[in-house]
Every structure is written in C-alpha cells, then in structure tokens.
Amino acid sequence: MLRKRVIPCLDVRNGRLTKGVKFAGNLDIGDPVETARRYYEEGADEIVFYDITASAEARGIFLDVVERVAAQIFIPFSVGGGISSVEDMRAVLLAGAEKISINSAAVKNPALISGGADAFGSQAVVVGMDVLRVPASGQIPSGYEVVIHGGRKRMGLDAIAWARRCEELGAGELCINSIDADGTKDGYELNLTRRIVDAVRIPVIASGGAGTPEHMYEAVSTGGASAALIASIVHYGEYTIRQCKEHMAERGAPVRLSW
User: Fold this and answer.
1) What is the mean pLDDT of residues 188-194?
2) What three-state secondary structure class fits 50?
3) Lowest mean pLDDT among 12-26, 148-162, 216-230
4) Which of 57, 147, 208, 256 could pair covalently with 177 via S-S, beta carbons 3.0-4.6 A apart?
5) Positive or negative, the Cα torsion across 191, 201, 80, 135?
6) What is the rounded CA–CA span in Å between residue 188 and residue 180?
7) Smallest Cα–Cα separation from 55: which of 8, 101, 90?
8) How far is it, in rounded angstroms, from Cα 42 to Cα 60?
9) Catalytic-labelled residue, pool 45, 51, 130, 182
10) Residue 76: how many CA atoms within 13 Å on its side-chain side?
11) Pick the catalytic residue: 11, 45, 88, 182?
C-alpha cells in the first residue's frame, strides 16, 4: 500500500515565510530555509514552496532560496510561483528541486504542462489549483471555479474539467487548494477533494484548511487524497509533524513513521 504523505507548505514573499487566511492578511513568520530544515528533521515526507506574489508581479522565481533549501534538506521538494516556461522549470530543477508546481501559468498556457512533462517527465510536474466555491452554472457545473494569481483573478473555468485536462496534458500530480478553507483551520474541503480524486487517476494533494491532525486523516480517508498539505498548524507550533503523523497512523492511515 502506498504511504500517505504529509507535506508542509511554505509560502514565501520577498524571501520570507508568510501566512494568511483565505489568501489575505499575510504576515511575516520566519525564514523559509530554517523552517524547511526543521520540518525535514521532524519527518516531513516532502516540502512545497510557493513564491506567492511572483505570478501576480510578473517576475521570476526565487532561485537563491531554492539553492539554499537544496543544501539543507534531503527529501523531495517542489517549487511554484513565477514559473512560466520550460526554461524556468529547468532552472528550478537545476537549483535543486525535484518537482515544479505550476498554477496560473498553466491555466493561461496549458501547453506548459505537456512541455514540462515531455522535457522532465510527468513525475516532475505538479499542477496547483486554487479553487473557489461558486453557484453551479452551465459554465461551472461542479460549483467550483479555478482562480489564478494568488486568488486575485477568477477564470470561469470548472475545476473538475480542468483537473481532467491537466491529467490529459501530462501532469503527474495535482495539488487542490480550497480558497474558502485556506488558513481557516476548520478542515479541508472534502467534497472538492473527493470529486477531483474520483475524476483523475494521478495523485491528488489536499490543501487548505488543516487545523488538527484529524483533519489530515479525513483528507486521506474520506477525501481520498494521496497527501495532506499543511501550514498554519505547524508554522505556529500547535502540532509537530510527528504528532500529526502519529495521529494519522493511530486512525489507520498508512504513513511513514520511521526517520
């Protein structure tokens, strides 16, 4: 049985770790490299870094941070934000990341997904989806709309349809972030997670809303996710990664506990 992964998410702005609620009110909460090292030592399976303003500011990725992280941790990590070409992907991988996460750029240029998969393999291409709950309509029958530029621009694109399209184009993994749940610590958007899990055959990471280890268990059980992305509950010291994984294991989720 494949192990369920626990993946801390580090949002970075101007080289500093930051956190907000529903994509707003972000505060500086530390150094991303030091934090990544701590999570690695606590037993994180992977780590995700997002440069949260790179796409909206139309600038490149923070390669200096990527290189510093690669020298400190020895687990897979992915990097997103400001990646808009295969050349950008190559630069991030050469800086030490194992995976590239694309979001806004993929929506605007879907060929970027297939280009990255052809050049580096599907396993290196993660498509992030920021999703907003909306009234169901002919254009958005699922009631879930894709939003880009860090929650700033609604696209009129149905999230379930986009998930299927990403898989067709060669994405190796999807990271589904609920804007409605993000930072609230009230639990993941399990309906959204399960609907996308059921719509595709590639791994799905649940993101947005973790407040307790039980929420993480629900994401990989009820939601069917392959991994649970977490931020606030570990950033603010409410739980350690080990505590989260031990709870998940006690509830029957297959997780890696030895490190």
Assistant:
1) 97
2) strand
3) 12-26
4) 208
5) negative
6) 9
7) 101
8) 31
9) 130
10) 14
11) 11
